[in-house]
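haha ok so turns out i had the wrong file open the whole time. this is the CORRECT one, sorry everyone. sequence first:
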Amino acid sequence: MEGDSSASYIHMVQHLIEKCLIFHMSKEECMEALSKHANIEPVITSTVWNELEKENKGFFEAYAESKSKDERMTEEETSAMIKKMITESSKEDSKD
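then structure:
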């Protein structure tokens, strides 16, 4: 049973990282946002992000190239977006 909950937790972190990518957040911004708003330890976010990078090398290379500094979100926008993501994520998980 514990393996299922660990896999589910990692899947949730992956889903939240994917949402961060949609909002053009850097790895550091994503780690900070998930730590602050979802109580996910930065080391967990970093580990899952690194695994996603390994599995999707081409995507992350293109993502890094396309990301520009002026696309950063304000803290208020980030907070609202993360809260919405968590709410949506918990609704999706309850359907599974």
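DSSP finds five helices and no strands in the chain.
again sry for the mixup
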